[in-house]
Amino acid sequence: MYSDVKNLPKNSFYTKKIAKGCKYCQEGSKMVLLVTGLCKSNCFYCPLSEKKKGKDVVYANELLVEKDEDILKEGELMEAEGTGITGGDPLIVAKKTSQIIQLLKDYFGEKHHIHLYTAMLDSKKIDLLINVGLDEIRFHPSVDTWNKIEKSGMKKIVKSIEIDVGIEIPLIPHLRKETKHLLFEVDKYEIDFINLNELEFSETNVDALEKYGYEVKNDISNAVKGSEEMAKEILEWDLTKPIHYCSSSFKDGIQLRKRIMRRARNVAKPYEIITEDGTFLIGIIYAEKEEMEKIMKMFGISQSVMEWNDEKRRIETSPFILEEIAEKVAYPCYIVEEYPTADRLEVERIPL
Known about the structure:
Elements: E1 5-7, E2 13-15, H1 20-26, E3 30-34, E4 59-60, E5 63-64, H2 68-77, E6 82-86, H3 94-108, E7 113-118, H4 123-131, E8 136-139, H5 154-160, E9 164-171, H6 176-186, E10 193-198, H7 206-211, H8 227-234, E11 243-246, H9 248-267, E12 273-274, E13 280-285, H10 289-299, E14 306-309, E15 314-317, H11 319-325, E16 333-338, E17 346-351
Parallel strand pairs: 3-6, 6-7, 7-8, 8-9, 9-10, 10-11
Antiparallel strand pairs: 1-2, 2-11, 3-4, 4-5, 12-13, 13-15, 13-16, 14-15, 16-17
Helix pairs in contact: 3-4
């Protein structure tokens, strides 16, 4: 068993060293760039949402990308120091992926660290991406290859790759035997790290996971019961390569929280209050646009702390201001908590 296990927050841990790309993620400084929802693997556990799965779309974090400038703007808003390119499978659209890598390197500089996930073992496409600046590649082999990975040609391909290369898979309890075969085999390859992720429920994989009898590990998590225990067991397998286990709660409570906090600092309006979780608290009034000026005059509110949101058809202001005037306003008033992301996902709504 490893004697040098180093603990991270939220039950995550690693041995020996962490992949460079993971270090940026831990600081919330990596932009998540989905370059396509297309994929040939058809993994039963795939958590990708309906709006992305099987569709050739591009998302920079939560922003649907319509032009290259959208990617660069999102990177600026979150002060990105790197980008994680994901899918689907980025190698299916290798030409587009190479153009995006070039775009990022040209704009943010060579130090902008780019890692990529793929299930495809296509040396020509991999070389194309390395030649334009890819810094790190993580192979995510299809489940049906785990017990015969030695026949896949992976050993030869990873040996030829000169950038950082690793394996990254979810921990699926009923595939313990297949996982063990895979990890013992790739442990002999010229890879730099093994990344293990806690298996998670999503809206799109819940039916598939429940067919195997899986359930959430507790009431406040979407992680699969038994996945984390499997990570601890793998420590006893005495693999030689560095191992990094990332829990579901680490991704949400550390990585995502830090990433949205970076964005919140740059997009917050004067009346939006940033919480310790990086979300916004906003006071909202459901009234017509022409009522806003009346409300501002009635209570002496400055234009800098009250404005009309045309997309959501509502008046917005500071939650502190709204708490003071709500009883005297003849319209529905709420304090809402929202993510500072492009989709402005609402977390909670409290009526006043």
